[in-house]
Specification:
Rossmann fold; alpha/beta; 7-stranded mixed sheet; 24% strand
Amino acid sequence: MDYRDVNRANWNARVPIHVASDFYDVEGFKAGQSPLRAFEREEVGDVSGRRLLHLQCHFGLDTLSWARLGAEVTGLDFSEAAIEQARAIAADCGIPARFVTADVYDAAEALGGATYEIVYTGLGALVWLPDLTRWAETVAGLLEPGGFLYLAEFHPFAAILDEETGTTVAHDYFDRGPHVWEYPYTYTGSEILEHQTSVQFQHGLGEVINAVVAAGLRVDSVHEHGHTLYRQFPSLTGNRGDYRFPEGAPRIPLMYSLRASAS
């Protein structure tokens, strides 16, 4: 099984469902809303006039949100269907952006040797990559001297808890996979996927940090966040994009963010 071919088919099938979903709310985006989290905007800082590359960009709403904040953006994803939608949304909104279809490990060649001031990777990206050492080396090669990587991700600790209650350790933190999943739906709704198999790889926080350091980047900050994008456990309260444990309940990290600079 080639995990890339399997996952590409799965994500190509997800694209039209995601574009039509309330979860992504494309019409809201076109009306001016931004899916970027407040902590991302704060930790990345002013992007005006800066060249920003978004790896594993899906159909580009985060990418185009950075463009609205003034960045010169390029988005890259291995799903042809996603890139087609990203280009269409950019055109509809009149937002200048470049979108490229390529696997993340082939980014340097696909982008023609270009380098960037910011390489951004958003939520839910790393679980699709088997080799973080190669990923971090790819990122380092795409950064200009003085540029930085900014990563926002779901926290791997939360992934070891049982999905029903979020109170019991049910999964092995150190089991990197591959994990082959057969699931008829995507996370945005109940429409049946044409291609239902996916292959995922779990990565611990230490593994991510060590890969970034080994690639020659300097870690500037790692922040752990007590809220998440979706209702990961039934006990979480909140609304779209901001789900948390109830006040007074014990908390665990649900997301994290990392910023690392090139010398």
